[in-house]
């Protein structure tokens, strides 16, 4: 947003009152204190928005098509591959990337690492939105989206793994809304609400850890229902939940690094000095966590292979594909993280984070689609399915940016807190 | 009658009572391994008798009011149909399908009918988070479209690739699968439509236990005519529909990698950690929190001490 040039260091609307002492109205806060014309100008000046418009121009009609003509009209409607990109990417990919909320919550609130406070809210927001949009993807994919609440209130199947996923994602979403609401309460100036949330922060964080452990694991455990369909190298029925949980740790941390890098470079006007001055150091700290999680993950993957005695599979074509994934998506970022942290190469840590974010999405797609039905055939998603997936992601991006523009996520609220 | 309580008698009685209680408890927990309803029904399919006439497909289509197929049921060119290198399978318009298999070294091809196998401990049922599936005492696995959310986990979980989804409908999608003609026939003690229509007696309807006996008898009395295995006796924990084959099962399109135990067994590892995480994590992380806090306050204390 070029209207806030780098030459004007002060942040727009960072307190309840204007410089002259009058109170900002909600409308002014929403428009970032700009006139309608100014807002429109900055919107059209940004090439990213033109790309988004192009995505939506085709994506929105496709989504309508899905709701009025059925899932079969935009996907290949495969009975062999019941889960396509909406879940493969939207649910299984987005959820590990959203582990950031509980990870940074734990670091700050439980382990008492107050030095991570400048990036904590970004991690919480990243978590909240990731989960929320995983549910949005689910609503696109479910056959009867209007029955989303059925497993909660109408017909309960508590012995099913998906039942746990549903309940945990729902309750964890509420926990995350509460955690992020402190920023919202500051913004609207309702300090009582904020103080209440602060008083239960430890409880919220601990419930966040429990719920995250269980449903990150449950997403892995969902695949243990198909022990014969997924290639043995991608499924280890005893350890699948640990594999998914452990990989969510570096996925979530890496996503915060990627997100904070984007904010630092493209949203500089919204960041305050505290964020900008500490983000490099914090990136190194997060990178260290990633390196530890990655080496752990690599080892437990090997343990999985050894436990199931899958060594012979490594010599097949599938095995080479598996080794390729392990090299590019696990070993490479692990080395980059470790080297980058040791030699304080922040850029290297940031590249490693990007690689591991892509790597984890790759792993989830492998498990849910590419190596699923490994003895049958590969299902190539319909282009409309790909486009709708991209459209929902674009919506995620817009909401993410909308909130970062306004709420005190990257900057500290001035005045009463 | 001189009724006396002494200490020894009391202890003996107590021990006996608790032993009895333990035994009866143990008796109850045996139910953890469900072996199916005792008098449930099933069907034995003898591949050596099937001639691929597709009468069963036609009967099923009529009984279940499924849409008319593109090609009539007496058109045998469907046996050559391939999609993605696969032979025909169930879909939203057909609950059962017969496929032809050319077996090397055999003069005539073999035909295999596929439909829901009606597992004893069905994966679709155990994976369903809205209890849309029911295993009835008669042996059928039935589905309730009124609570189904359309998540399609049952399709992922079924090791036999049976449940299908009505993708074509935006407002009335549902799972489509064979229900053993439960409402119309099974509850009235009648065999399903496909069995009744079979002119070759390739399909035999009866109590599952009796069918197992019959299968073993056929194998025993016709040495060399059958593979010495009843597919479905143990596959996926046992199924109501079972198969006898004169050729190795893998050559007739059966997935021989299906485990000999219920699919649910693979999920139990995770299910068992859930209560542990729920109870241990709060204490563990509250403990971490207290440790971190203590360090903080201790740090301040020593600082103060140093200043004094």
Descriptive notes:
The complex is a heterodimer of chains A (417) and B (308). Chain A contains 16 helices and no strands. Chain A has one domain: Formate dehydrogenase/DMSO reductase fold (Up-down Bundle). Chain A is globular, with a radius of gyration of 22 Å. With 417 residues, chain A is mainly α. The longest helix of chain A is centred in the C-terminal third of the chain and has 36 residues. Chain B has one domain: Alpha-Beta Plaits. Chain B contains 7 helices and 9 strands. Chain B has a 3-stranded mixed beta sheet with strand order 8-1-9. In chain B, strands 2-3 form a two-stranded antiparallel ribbon. In chain B, strand 4 and strand 5 form a beta hairpin. The N terminus of chain B is likely disordered. Chains A and B meet through helix 3, helix 6, helix 9 and helix 11 of A and helix 3, helix 4, strand 6 and helix 7 of B.
The Cα radius of gyration of chain B reads 28 Å
- Class of chain B in CATH? Alpha Beta
Using the 3D structure, state the CATH architecture of chain A.
Answer: Up-down Bundle
- Could you tell me the CATH topology label of chain B: Alpha-Beta Plaits
Roughly how many Å apart are the termini of chain A? 27 Å
The coarse silhouette of chain B is elongated
Major pleated sheet of chain B: 3 strands, mixed
Residue runs with pLDDT of under 50 for 5 or more positions of chain A = none
Mean pLDDT of chain B: 88
The most extensive interface, with participating residues per chain, is: A-B, 63 and 61 residues
The total domain count of chain A is 1
When the domains of chain B are counted, the total is 1
- The average pLDDT score of chain A comes to 92
| SS summary, helix count of chain A | 16
Number of helices, where a helix is a run of at least 4 consecutive DSSP H or I residues of chain B:
7
Radius of gyration of chain A: 22 Å
